[in-house]
Write the structure tokens for this entry.
Amino acid sequence: MSRLHRSPRQLVKRVLLGIFYAQVAVVVSLMATTKVRTLLRGKRATTFPVTPPTTVPLGGVDTATTFTFGTDLYDDMLAAIASAEHRILFETYIWKGDAVGARFKKALIDAAARGVDVHVIYDGFANMVVRPSFLRLPPPIKVLRYPVLAAGLRVLSPRRYGRDHRKILVVDGEIGYVGGYNIGSLYATEWRDTHVRLDGPAVWNLDNAFVDFWNLRKGSGLDRLHEHGVSSWETHIRAHRNIPGQLLFPIRGMYLEAIDRAREHISITAAYFIPDRDILQALLDASERGVEVTILMPEVSNHVVADWMSRGFYSTLLDGGVKVLLYRHAMVHAKTATIDGRWTTIGTANIDRLSLTGNYEINLEFVDDGLAAHMEKVFATDSQNARELTRAEWSARPLVAKACELILAPLRPLL
């Protein structure tokens, strides 16, 4: 009798183990195949169209300058650091120990040497491959290393598992930067990304985001940062911050509300597009009511497994009238969207579960016709380097590809 009771359980166990082994086999095969192809292809020059840095007035008191090429952004950030007189707040997810990373390290050390109060935050897990000596910054620079194992002994608490995926620089509370760019030579010329620089009272949003994170996570030996308050209330810019430690994830809600408001067109640029059910349905509903929905994503990203999980949504998107543009010959890492020539977001959050319900992230939300018009031009420029995926092409993909997508589908909630 007990054997009869155990048999269904054993069957379920074997099925689950079979699925797990199949997923492992697919992941290993994809990674190995990608590595071999990369070695055979060798290093190739990366070129793609870029939009020059452009400054747009916001509400009469602030300005926003967008950057779509890493070298332009880094030169501007380093000039801002060199001009600092009082305080620098620098936060990054990845900080490579290469030539570009060294320039930023020297700039921060030089600023501290001339009396500027310098605070640095970086993610320990994202920089495990970086030499520890590179990330040691001399006093009086204050450094907060977000730990690799942030959960500690609280392994069952969802509040403890988010990575610090943010990229923020604030200089003297007057200049602020945020966006998708990490720090490194690869990103300077080979990746297509988007960052925005703010000048004016709206910089407080980024200053406050850094201060709150620092005070939330600081350990012993680090002083508490004090908030200076804001000189004016700006209605055209809002900062949305995901804070796993407080179970706050407003960026997802921002996207859902903005998509539901759309009446004409939605243009999304996503490094990794693995939407949850609600965001996917919101986009399909928008398309059904006549909104032109276009999603631009890399044809081949730096994460092959994420690519295959994204592909699992292509059939649903194409059947729902959503246009899919695949960016070619370079990694597009931007996290931006524009809607109806009125609304824009630029930030650090990808459209996947890790970013929207897991990591520490920050996205700026703009309601401004001028910035939206400019970002639509950026999207049009990027579209020149992309090809549209057709339903006929997608339906004709090999059966083995369809099988891989099906096997990997259960992993979507993890990414």
Notes: Residues 2-41 form the longest helix (40 residues). DSSP finds 13 helices and 18 strands in the chain.
